């Protein structure tokens, strides 16, 4: 009876490892069919595959830990790495969710941050940013719009040109839209947009930007460091890509922090 209870008890963590690993890996496979390739797409699999392997080989791993200090040390380091990751992920997610201020209408300039294209069409995440920008611009008829995004390695045209075309098709006056078509990162979005603003409106302006909810925290800090303090207008995210988006943003926040960009 005691042996049966022990087996059930030991089987629970193994099942959790296997199920977690499978779900995270499946998330990556699903995201590959719905989003442009990138770190956010593959991160769930990077986290999930080791969990899956640990679950599949847990009995052998336990025997190895009992016999070898080296295996015990490896298992400890892996556990420590996961503990640190989840602590950092919890912290960055809390910071993201706590950044909830929405700017008032009527800014002088609205910057729309790129979010990926497929062919000559914006991805769903970029489409929602553009829709949020359009709504703001409709409420603020004097606001100038800068669409910011260059051309990635797998793209045939700049994000800025696709974004401009989308807003024009929605009915926005083409004369209100300026393309910033060189940036390939959030940092460059603001640096290059600031150059345009300084040239067109050298006397100083009130600036806001549009990006997806998970991206606002980092973007506000990057904008401030670029000399363009701005508040973010939050666009709605894509719910089934939320794990990928928040995992990628966690990595980006840590990376930008370590490099002194925020």
Low-pLDDT windows of residues: none
Helix content: 55-70%
Shape: elongated
CATH architecture of the largest domain: 3-Layer(aba) Sandwich
| Structure annotation, total helices | 9
- CATH homologous superfamily placement of the largest domain: HUPs
Which strand order spans the largest sheet, edge to edge or round the barrel? Answer: 5-4-1-6-7
* Computed structural class: alpha/beta
- N-to-C SSE series? HHHHEEEHEHEHEHEH
Per CATH, the class of the largest domain reads Alpha Beta
Number of strands: 7
Largest sheet: 5 strands, parallel
Q: What gyration radius follows from the Cα positions, in whole Å?
A: 23 Å
What is the CATH T-level topology of the largest domain? Rossmann fold
In quaternary terms, these chains amount to single chain
Could you tell me the strand content as a percent range? 5-15%
End-to-end separation in angstroms reads: 58 Å
What is the averaged pLDDT score? Answer: 89
Tally of individual domains: 2
Strand and helix layout:
Elements: H1 2-31, H2 39-56, H3 58-67, H4 69-98, E1 109-113, E2 117-118, E3 121-122, H5 124-139, E4 144-148, H6 159-170, E5 177-180, H7 186-200, E6 207-212, H8 216-225, E7 231-235, H9 242-258
Helix pairs in contact: 1-2, 2-9, 3-4, 4-9, 5-6
